[in-house]
Structure formats: structure tokens, C-alpha cells
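Marked as duplicate of an earlier ticket. Keeping the data here for the record.
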Amino acid sequence: MPRYRAYGLGLESPVDLPSVREDPAAPPDVVIAPGDQQRFEAARASIPPAVAGDDWFRSGVLDDGAIYLRWTGLFEFLVSKDGRRIDYLGADTAALDSFVAYLLGQVLSFSLIARGIEALHATVVAVDGRAVGFVGDCGSGKSTLAAAMLSRGFPLVTDDLMVLAPAGRHWTVQPGIPRIKLFPSVARRVLGRQGIGTPMNRGTSKLVLPLDGPQATTSEFPLDAIYAIDSARARRPRGPAVQSLHGSRALIEVVRAAFNLIVTDRDRVANQFAFATRVSSSVPIRRLTYPRTLSTLPEVCDVVLSDLAACAPSAMNA
């Protein structure tokens, strides 16, 4: 069975994944396999019925501790209690890029949590050998800003899901998969891509765009800074601005950036808070405010790059 590596995990999968191939002799961290129809039928029957008009996404915990996940009309997943196995149905009827985007995003986050690994909802680019992360609410423009950085030659490290690994007192960002999710208008304007991508699902025009060559990296990078995009303030018609956050304000931004908001048991919440505390106390956290227009993006990139240049890695990570 083919072996891959993404987000610091070894994956065994019969589905071709856009990730680095790994030595098949190495034991996998997660096994991905086609599911049993009868088991999925039992899982569907065991979760509470959907509220009227709210059947797009369904989830539930089974008696054996496994997590059931379904995106109606696309695919279903079962994640074992220990996170070491992910079963799926529906990959043969959904576009492969869309299937992989969900599998190696929302679904894999449950495996990460089961292993005690917290992920952040972030998009990351590499700047001069260092990782720079963008966090913010859904729709705040993380991927759009990363695409603007990508257009300047700064490769993508990961889009949507950021996994950090401790490196002494600091952190490294684990490489994700070489793709970015953008609306067609953004892809055309920022990257010059004319609709080359796969729709995420029937409810959005957002595309999954594969990246290749120098556009994406398979290396891990030390994390230099996290920029929290301020969606509310960004609507004001003013130029880009960066503000350093410290203490509780920095902590809140990291907590808000948690990727998975479904698992809320006591152990997970405690681990999440401890992780956010360590990250916010060891990584520079910035608030990034700017008008939400594509024409502003070049100036926003300039502001971010100037801010990074003003804070040398030795000073930022001391």
C-alpha cells in the first residue's frame, strides 16, 4: 500500500494523495481505507436526526468512540477513537481534489487531536527560510493573502491546516499538501489562473487549485510570526497596519484559530489551552488590519515583509 507524509504524519492510503511519498517500510501513523457499507449504515442510524434544513454536515460519536462525519451528497468518514484509522465512502463519486481536501483537512484533524496534536486554522508561506502564518475567521482572506505572497515567489507551506512541531523553545511548521483554495475571481486576479481547479462542493464557487514546482514546499520551516487578520476592522477604508499583541490578547488569537471546534471534551480543551499558551508566549503574534480589496494586496504584502524585516529571527525567537 502506498505511503505518504503530510502534516508530520505517515499516511497509508489506496487513494493517490498529493503528498510526499514515504518509505513503505515505515509504520504508518494513520491508515486510510475504503469503508464497510453496513458499518456506515449503522453509524448513520446511531446519530441524532438532522434539524430541518441543516443536513449538509453531520457528525456524531459512536459507541466504540469512533467519530462519524458526513458531507451530504459527497462523502462519509469514520475516524477510530485512537485516530489511527480513517474509513471512507463516496470517494468514487466525488472529485478527487475535493475528497482529498476534506480528508486531509477537517477529517485528519480528528486523528491529530486523538494523538494530542493541536492544529490551527491558518495558511502559511515561507519567507527567506522562515514560516509566516495567517490566521483569522472563515472568509477573512487568509488564502487570498497567501496567494498574493505566492505571486511574489514565496512558496506555500500549508493552506487551511497548520500543524506545529516543538523545536526546543520554538516551533516548526509541518508541510501540508500542495494546493490552495480560492474563489475563481481571486485565482484569476492574483495568480492568473483561469478556472483551473476543482469545486470544493456544490454550495460554493471556491476552487481547490493544485500547486507545483516552486509554488509549494515539502520542507518544514521555523515559525517566525503569526498574523491575525482582523476581519471586522479590515472593512474600514484605511491602509494596512500591523499591531503587536501580547499576553491575553495574543493568547485569545491563538485560541480563536483552533482548527477543530467539534471535539470539546475536557482533555482536549485542556490540551488546546496549554498549546495556545505555549505558542502565544513563544511566537510573535500580530494583528493585521487592511481594507478587504484585491487592489490593496500588494501594499499589504509590503507591510508584512517590512514588519518581518524589522524583526530579525534572532530577536523574534530569543
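See parent ticket for discussion. The chain has a mean pLDDT of 90.
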